[in-house]
Give the backbone structure.
Amino acid sequence: MPSPLIERAEKHDYQKLFLHDLNWSRPDQPPVTVEYDGQHITATNVSQYRGIRVWVVDQTPDSRLEAELDRHLARSSTDRIVIFHDEHEQVWRWPVRRASGNTTTTRLSRHRHRTGDTDPRFANKLDVIRLPFDQTLDANTVLTKVRQAFDVEAHNETKHASKLMARLYAAMEKAYPTSVDPKVQDHEISVTLARILFLMFGDDTEMWRENLFQDFILEHTATDGTDIGSKLTALFAYLDTEPEHRTGERTEFDGFRYVNGRIFTERVTLPVLNSEFRAAVLDACDRDWKTISPAIFGSMFQSVRDAETRRQLGEHYTSEENILKTLNPLFLDELRADLAHIRTLGKYEAGKLNKLRDKIGRIRYMDPACGCGNFIIVAYRELRDLELAILERLREIDIAKGKTGEGDRKLFANLDLKVSLDHFYGIEIDEWPARIAETAMFLIDRQCDLKLTASLGLALDRLPIKKQPTIRGGNALTLDWAAVCPPTADTVVAGNPPFLGHATRTDAQAQELRAAWGKNDISRLDYVTGWHAKALTYFAGRHGRFAFVTTNSITQGDPVPHLFGPIFQAGWRIRFAHRTFPWTSEATGKAAVHCVIVGFTNQSDSDKPVLFDHTADTNTAGRRVRGINAYLVDAPNVFVTKRSAPLVAGLPETTFGNMPRDEGNLIVTPEQYQEVHADPVARTYLRPFIGAEELLHGKERWCLWLTNLDPADLSRSSLLRKRVDAVREFRLKSSAASTRQMAATPHLFGQRPALHTKPYLVIPGVSSELREFYPVLRVEPHVSASNLTFTASDPSGFLFAIISSSMFMTWQATVGGRLESRLRFSNTIVWNNLPLPDIDQRTRDNIITAGHNVELERAEHPTATLAQLYRTEAMPTNLRMAHDRLDRLVDKAFAASDHPTLAERQRVLFKRYEELTAPLLAQRPSARRGRA
Ligand SMILES: C[S@@+](CC[C@H](N)C(=O)[O-])C[C@H]1O[C@@H](n2cnc3c(N)ncnc32)[C@H](O)[C@@H]1O
């Protein structure tokens, strides 16, 4: 049964609908009539509520007339629902506002209801804007309701569109004979889906008569779907045929245009399809594709192509939010600020506006790992929006000068837009996304044109396609970027190149990385840094800007000087940076990838760099800071490099744990313990053996510590003998000479740097980044520490206290390397460089006492493991308080404020590090530091 609200709407009794059923108020405006190119159109105000007005037009005009009317209505009603209707359908239009940088753009959303359609979503929308009859609401509450009903959520759009495309994909997949090579099949299905998408877009964006493609399927293909494959094959060929090569006779394809631009060039002969596919096409045609952002095509196509990624929709693709995080501070915000400034210039405004248009027309944009083109799509759309804002302002200026009416219309005759598709470039190694990118760029162009029509009444005809972006298929690390997009002073490069750690990249990729950097030693540099190297070569000797979304590992640990050193030395500085933020993934149970975005410039503009922090309470606008260093801190521009002894006198040394190199033969697991313990000889050599797992999770392991081995014991214990023999054999077989040498002493651990005669500290080599503190443990000297730990003698407790402080944790997390996302302690980079301030004896004693108190609080929980004690959400209160007291003392020693933020701790650490290292660097004339 149709909803009573729909019944009322279908009778076109909108006034009763709003006044009686939805409880809105009486209208307050007279009718508005506008004229355009000899046509008239009248809108009647049927209702309103606190200035939010409802207008009804009893016709469905073309978009120019509609835009003209909307402009007039906007003068009296900022927030308005405009309903256009005829006997078959009604279209409800509502301006959706989107904030982007400092500006807000508006696009008219369109909600279509066909008479007789029982789709409950339309009734739901009406229900949402129903107001209580016994209560007066304020304007904001009503606006929220209307937005809830009519602002279309991009995310849901993606999901819905993906579902429709997935259905098409599945239906086609079934129809393919099994003899077809799966790669060919996948390629052909993907090409076909991109074309169908283009045709549905054409239906909804006035590329030709509305619903021409839908009607073609309805009227010219058999309902059982058997001929739809051949009909589409023929239609695709028609769309790629220039009019002069057509026969001129009337055909079922009449009305379709010659498209050009490679979308329909490749000949694909579709298999015999079926009614399921035909129904899926018709259902997909039913949705309004006009509002779908082509920037989502990447994720949409990925999701339809394989089930696994369908589940993880969006995971591999950069969201629009993250794209704008990159493009806004790199160049768009600056252009928007220029526009805002020019608008204050009075009589000089028009001239400056034209200059700004020229400037954005000179910009060339390249994404050298463009995938389906989402970065270039968004960049294009934003620049077109800017140009439109300039044109709108120029028009206002002319109107103010009295050039209205016919003169006004002529103002933009023969308008030559400055932002053009052929200013955009991409490189992509995978052929298929590169083709999607080309199609998607054409569709965003169409959407931008429709905005132009809606705003200025100008209609542009882009068919056949004449201008196209350049999307080059190929390997960005081996291609010459300048041959794809010749660099100019206005070239911008940005994207999200692939991240591959040194363990996951292939040998070929490692070789590409070496070639890009022009050196053999690429250390632990991520594959993504090849794009930085190529950008340096590309811009060499020129002004430019570039920014990449990357894994945050490029700003941590050992790789930092290797990457940022050459960048700074080449005269680049950081223009903006988004500090670490998690990459949103819908996949459950997957470790989050952590990213940063760093943008560089080599221009000597006076703009201070902008730093964006993404901690829970500062996920907001960026801060202008004096400088941003390679660790993404607004602090002195220093590199923390390996050091063999502590930088500061008085800091105890830390050393590696003991490395067995024994294939497990000197280690005793819990399962083996009984047997070894039962051997009266072997038992005397048993010692607890502690690695990171044992330390953090309280697990137990032992080792056979045979430094004082009585050789006779080997003959007394077959267990001992067997194990020692096995170690010798294993070492002898090794390809490493150093290991073979160790076979001469098979009873000993391969390396034994951690020998202690007094209680000592064990530091786990890796600890979760989610813990607030780095947990270390004091153990008795008979305990052996493994090579997955570091050890230190710490008779006073000073080291324990310092390493247990938040200041140390900040240093560790900022300059230390990572294993996946976990923190990796190192003595050479982290510990030896810890820039401890001068600490007087009294403060030192207090810090030591505070450290002891932490140990005492831990001791209150004898059965809890360190991992349990340091779970952030469940840390015992007294233990946390003991750490707080310790923090206060250490922070004070560093001259930080009472409860410093992470950023403040980082600043004081780098400042102190610079103080300590500057004299050292001055002694080494060849040493160079990066430039701020
Ligand atoms: C992380 S994706 C980003 C793609 C797209 N910008 C997005 O956000 O959806 C990285 C892209 O780089 C491409 N790629 C990987 N290695 C490449 C190489 N050596 N040269 C060019 N493109 C490459 C991949 O195929 C993929 O499309």
